[in-house]
# Entry
Amino acid sequence: MRRIGIASRALTIRFLCMLLVCTSFLVLGACAGPSRVGDGSSVRERSNADDGVVHTDLIRGMLAKKQYYAALAHIEDEKRTSGSTRELKLLEADARRKLGQGLQAEKIYKELLGTEYDGDAEHGLGLIYASRDLNSAVQHLRLAVQRRPTEGTFRNDLGYALMVSGRYKEALPEFATAVELDQNNQLSRNNLITLLLITKDETRAKQVARDSGVSDDELAGLRRKAQSLTKPR
# Structure
C-alpha cells in the first residue's frame, strides 16, 4: 500500500509539472506570437516608406543638378517597384518641362490640380505658358502664389512675368516679398534691382545693390538687362 501511495504521488507531481509546462507555453504563445508578427510588419512598412523618401530625395537632387534624363529613369524605377504617387508625378512633370516636353508636362500638371500639389502644378503651368501666352502665365502663377504665399520662388516667377509684360507696379511687391522671404536668393534680388532700374528708381536700385554686396560690374550687367527688357519688340 505504501508503494502504491508513493507511486500515486509521483504521478500526481508529474502531471502537475506537465500541466505547468503546457500552461507556460500557452501564455508565451499568446503574448509573444502576435507581437512578433506585428513588429515585423511595422518594420517592413517603415523601411519601405524610408526607401521611398530616400529615392524621391535622390530624384530631387538630380533635378537640381539638371540631370533630367537620369531623374526620369529613377522615376520609372520607383513607379515599377513601389507604384505611382502624386509626388512622383510632380517630379516627372518638372523633369519633362525642363527637357522641353511641354505637352507631356502640361498634361501631368493638370492631373495634379486640386490635389495637395495644386500650387506646384499651377506654378509649372505658368512656366510652360510664359513662352507663348504671358497673360495665361500670369494667371497660373498668381494662383500658385495664392496657394502658397510664402514660397519665394513662386513670387519671383510671378514678378518676372509681370515685369516682362510691362506691369511694373504689380511686379514690385512680388519681387520685394521674394527677397524678404529669402534674402540669400540672388535671382530675386537681381530681378528687383532690374525692375528698379527700369522704373528709373536709381536711388533704391543702388541701395539694394549696396546692401546686397552687388559689385559695380554686376550692377552694370543688370543695367544692360533692364535696357534690353524695355526695348520695343
Q: What stands out?
A: The radius of gyration is 33 Å. Confidence is low (pLDDT under 50) at residues 1-8, 15-38. The chain has two domains: 1-83, 149-233. Residues 2-64 form the longest helix (63 residues).
